[in-house]
Amino acid sequence: MGTMPESLHIFLPPSLVGESALSNFDIDPAKVQLAYAGGVPDPMVLQIGQLFRGLLNRSLEPTDRLYLDGIQTALAAHLLGTYSSVRWQPAARAPTVDPRRLQRVFDFIEARIAAEISLDDLAAEACLSAFHFARMFRKATGLTPHRYVTERRIEAAKEKLRLARSSLVEIAFDTGFGSQANFTRVFRKMTGLTPGQYRALFTG
């Protein structure tokens, strides 16, 4: 079994953060309620904790008590300045998308591969705003919506090229590229080959 992690509990005297003490420093007591910040790494708190730890297990000298008061004040100031409820907000949870909605988007793309597909179209299928959909889609797939649609168009074009039943112009329109020139440009950029060169690999 591994060793238990070390834990240090620090209790601040109420006099440090009481209403009268704060008022002396022109701090509004109504704005210093601390937010819960569990599990948040804080180098400053760690450093102050190590200073407290150095005073444990030995009797305190008068100068140590003065030192201890200073550490307590520094900790109180750091907590109030960093974790007051009006300043600190927990990190936003990473957005996720329902797998069923994501599958609906995939199906929509496959069904509309020959047509123009906009970000708004895809977001509507997921019942999300375009902004939130784009973020969630990239997190789920590792690709932007535009990149994913382009890659699916290229895969559909490859299949048609291997069958060798359609002209390059027909394949360009059937896979949503709009023109043979655009189809050739995107295909070569993503595969390193022109559509004609790719077809020749399977029909040569």
UniProtKB/TrEMBL annotation:
GO terms for molecular function: DNA-binding transcription factor activity; sequence-specific DNA binding. Residues 103-201 form the HTH araC/xylS-type domain. Keywords: DNA-binding, Transcription, Transcription regulation. It comes from the Bacteria. SMART domains: HTH_ARAC. PANTHER family: ARAC SUBFAMILY, HTH-TYPE TRANSCRIPTIONAL ACTIVATOR RHAS-RELATED. This is AraC-like DNA-binding protein. It comes from Rhizobium lentis.
